[in-house]
Amino acid sequence: xxxxxxxxxxxxxxxxxxxxxxxxxxxxxxxxxxxxxxxxxxxxxxxxxxxxxxxxxxxxxxxxxxxxxxxxxxxxxxxxxxxxxxxxxxxxxxxxxxxxxxxxxxxxxxxxxxxxxxxxxxxxxxxxxxxxxxxxxxxxxxxxxxxxxxxxxxxxxxxxxxxxxxxxxxxxxxxxxxxxxxxxxxxxxxxxxxxxxxxxxxxxxxxxxxxxxxxxxxxxxxxxxxxxxxxxxxxxxxxxxxxxxxxxxxxxxxxxx
Length: 257
Fold this sequence. Notes:
Radius of gyration: 33 Å
Strand order of the largest sheet: 2-3-1-4
Structural class: alpha+beta
Mean pLDDT: 77
Strand content: 5-15%
Helix content: 55-70%
Low-confidence stretches: none
Shape: elongated
Largest sheet: 4 strands, mixed
Number of helices: 9
């Protein structure tokens, strides 16, 4: 209010988190708080005259810290932020607001006018970069899985060339050879999934706690979709060595060293 100026007794508003932490069992209105607004200033003793709802300091905030609000007229600061709500395009309001301020004080500097979308985007930029890097690393991990499975199966097939040749010479069908190699490759992928799934079950919840409001993790979809995708990669990576094994010439295989 305009009457809350430097000539009146100091007052303050507190948020609900403040009341919950310090006055959970008693009346807060009329109580006094003593706060040093800056490290070099004296403590200000103000009467609590109202309680306001908790206000999030960042997008996705789930818990709130105690906060105290002082009238600007009683505790002026060198910097002041003006926030305006509009039904038109926010960008269209920047120039009219600038001229309105200068009509009161033409020497008043106006620094970095931004829309609320720009403010939120800038605030969340660091977390979005981290999320992007995590996505890139996840894709690289899947690529390494494919390369690793292919390399292991291809090496195993090369080591079993004589065995495969003997099987073919004794009448084994090429389809059965392909099935055998595919089975071995998928078995390796299954072992990896059985070990990795329990260890990764907590990761979606961990990511949600780390990046509240910035990412949405669908835990069920991740825990079902990723194993299915890894299995598909394992099958594709194993199929080429399996196809190559089924085409082994028994005579060449028996001479293989």
